[in-house]
Structure formats: structure tokens, C-alpha cells
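User: Fold this; C-alpha cells only.

Assistant: Input:
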Amino acid sequence: MTSIRHFPATHPLPDWRNFGVMLRVLVGVNGLALLVALVQVQDMSMWLLRYVELAAVVEPWLLTCLGLLALLRDQLWRLPLRLGQAAVLLLAGGLAFSLYRYWQFLVPGDVGSPYRTALLAMTAAALVLSYFELRSAAFSPAQAEARLAALNARIRPHFLFNSLNAVLSLIRARPQEAELALESLSDLFRAAMRDPSELVSLADEIALGRQYLELEQLRLGDRLAVDWQIGEVALDLPIPPLMLQPLLENAVYHGIEPAAEGGTVRIAITTQGDELCIAIANPTTPQVPHPAGNQIALANIRERLALYYDLEARLEIASADNRYEVRIVLPCRTKAH
């Protein structure tokens, strides 16, 4: 099963197909170009003009280099780390050399040196690789797993406490249902004790969410209605554990319990292109504001998504017309890199 060890923040050689990596490279190299432009000009009023001139040379090289690195990512990852980094440096320098020679062919009057250009390109690439290696050390698998364990530990007590309360409310009045609920609760305990660094299948997360909502329906009765809308999605898609349940718990606790008449929790799971979208919506009671605990749970999930997917995943919130919706968007990954 895929784990956090396979994700971009924990790999010393970057995942060149990751949006967060691409964005950091673009910002970093353009930042270097801004600094070079500042050093080269004597008049500050010419700074931005000089940067635009440099960008006309840097951007084609940078975008082409990123495209090639994305294509060659898997081959680079198979190499030993230093050899892979050397290959990146040679690619950056060779591409800069070739583009500069092509530019000299188009503009014969340009007497600059392509070797100097290649050396500058390799220096920029070396700085980028150094940054990602340092970042990889800061987000080592052990540290990332420890952080995930700490984040999951914040979820478990509230989650299990509420589930246990649901069972306790049944013991005297409906003992047979309480027995079935205890079996479901044992499954929830097992799910909560999983290794937080390991991904689980979407099917497992849906099953866990259904069990949790069944427990809550035993406690709330007809006040809680549930509407599952699962599109044509691959149920074996790996996703982080305990993504659905905390959001379902929030929907019940903040959307259903405060309303005397109850309401419906709607869960929609669809794919849009190469992204998996999970949306959970609940009614809101205007007189009851969302407690701080709701925001803490959302911040928890945001941080876990960042540890797994960097900038490729997002959590969105929409609130309108007495309806509160939380949407998680994840990249569809059917196997580890």
C-alpha cells in the first residue's frame, strides 16, 4: 500500500510532476533572475526592464527544462541520488547551451558565451536541488509520520468518545441494537489505530463513514438522514485515512444536532478529470454559529493533505442558503510512484 514515504516532500530528488514542486522552481528561478537584474543595473529605474530582458531568455529554458524533467522523472528516481542530481545539472546546462547557440544562430551579432550561460544554468539548478534536498531532510518520512500520528491523535478521542456515547444511549432501551453497534464500534477502533502514514482505499473510507453514520442514526433516530451520491469512481483509489469521518462528524455535530427537526447530510464522491472530489454538505442553523472546534478539524485535515500531497490537494468551504459544504479535492493516484 502507498505511504507517505512515496510523496514529494519526503523524496530528496523532487517529483517534477508535482504542482508544488513546479511552482517553487518557477518562483525560485525567477527570484534569482530578479536578483541578477538588480546586480546588473546601475539605475533602479531600469531594474524591471532588465528583468524582462532576462526573463525572455530564462523562461523558455526553464519551461522546457521542467517539461523534460517531468518526462524523465521515473528514470531519474531510479538512479542513485547523486547521480540523479548530476543528471539534472547536465540536463539544465546542456539545454541552456543548446538554446543559447540557437539564439546566436538567429541573432549573429550576439557575442556572448554559451559556456557561461550553461554554467549559470547549472548553478541555478544546483541551488534548486540544494533547496529540495534540505526540504526533504526537514520533511523526512520519520518526521512526517510523527506529525501525522500527532494530527490523527487529535481526531481519535473526540471521534471514539462520540461513538461510545451513541452505543451507551442504546444499552438499556435497545440491547440487541447496542450489541450490533458495539461490533461497528470495534471496527471504528481498528480503523482509528491504523498507521497514519499508510493510505487506505476509497472503499474502506466509505465503509468507515457508513458505519459511523449508522451509529449516529441509532443515537439521533429520524433526525439524521443521509444521502450518499457516489459517481463512477475507482473504489480502490488510495487516499489518506480518516478523511471522511471527521467531516461527517462535523456535519452531524454542527449541522444536525443543533436543529430540533434534524436534517440531511449529503455526501457526493465524483471524479473530475484526474481529480477525486469528496463533498460533504449539511444544513445550518442561523442562530447557532460554527464553533471553533469545526475550524480546528478543518485545519487538521488541511495539514494532513499538505503532508501527503503538497499543493496538489485542496480543501474548500462553501456556505450559503442555510447550507454548509466542505469539499476535498485529491489527485487520483492508482499506485505509488
